Every structure is written in C-alpha cells, then in structure tokens.
Structures
1.
Amino acid sequence: MRVHATLSKQQKLQPTSTRYFPRRD
C-alpha cells in the first residue's frame, strides 16, 4: 500500500513523468 502512495506522490510531483512513462496499471 505504501508503494502506491509513493507512486502517487511521484506522479503528482512530476506530472511530466507520466508523459514518458504512462501509468501502466
């Protein structure tokens, strides 16, 4: 569960990251 929170934080902090790395659920 903690991992999900970390990923969410990273995505929010680096929205551009989602561009290069589209969230692959």
2.
Amino acid sequence: MKYPHWHIIRTAPLQEIKVHDALYAVGISVFTPCEIKVQAKNQYEALKGTERQAVIYPLFKTYTFAKVAMNHPVLMDLRDRRMVYWFLGNEHKPYRLKQDAIDRMDKATGYNQYDPRKHSLKHKADTPEAFMRSGFEFKEGDYVQFERGMHDNIPLMVVGFANGDRDAKVMLKAFGREMMQTIPISELILLRTGKRKVQDAA
C-alpha cells in the first residue's frame, strides 16, 4: 500500500530533479512542476553552433512534492547527503496536501511536470523534427521567438504545426496587424510556456 499523503519537501539548491529521480526510482509518487527548454549550455556553445540540450527549470525552486513517509530510507539517505533539508511544516509536523490540491497546481502550471520516463530520453533526439515529435521543445499555445536575427526579441504564439511537424504556425504582428506565418521550427526557440487548453466535459 502506498503512502497516502502528499508532503512538501525542501531540497538543497539545484537538487530538485535529482531528489525527484531518487524518490521516483523506488516507486514513490513525486510531483515537480517544471519548464523545459532546448538551448545551448552557454553563450560560447551557442556561438559555436553546437547541438542544443534539454535544460529543466523547476518552477518551485528548492521544493518538490511527494507521497513519502518521514522515515523512508531513501529520504533519510538524501538528507544525510544534504540533498534534502526536510519537510515543510509547522511545529515539527509536515504539511499535508490533498490530491485535489496537487491536481489544481498541475493545471495552474500548464500540466508541465517533470517525468523521468520521457525527459530522460530527450537528449537523444538529434534533429528539430525529433524534438517536436516528442513534444519536447514547444507545443501549441506556447510563445517562441526567432533564435537569431533582427526579430529575435519578438514573442510569437504557436497556433499549430505543418509539414510533418517540421514547421510551426505562429502569429506575427507586422504593419499594425496580426498575420499567421509558417516558420521552420529549427529557427525558433521557446520563450515561455503557455497553458494547455482543457476541453470542457460534455
């Protein structure tokens, strides 16, 4: 039987994903909202034109959420290794969150949560098309921008895809009006993540 309560775990800086992986590996339910971008490691790598990599940005820095007991061996090991500080709570009692609170948070953050089953494979995609087929780089509703050039600071909303997902349809403002343009995805990078549209129940 799995542990029934969600808790807020405070992690050391930059350890959110490692803690998530460690808990997930032993079957613990973990929730870590994040934003994922495909980008060069740094400006030097960008100028060299080297292959871009997956960079994961947790939305709640130094926090993750898990259904785990305070005395779980993996959690104790993470604490001994100073990857986890402890539970967020009051008077030595950890806060408990209900599943609907996690669900609301998931919806509010655009359903963009870290998932080791798919995000661990992202770096193996070696073409823009492969990134898009895996739903990795950006999706409909996200805002993108040109990677370089005179229009590289203009936000463009993705409204669809074409040509076997090799091109993105974006809304571009020019000459005082909005126009839909089709741009090769290899020329675009993610600017910010939009919220996924949720269909109303029939």
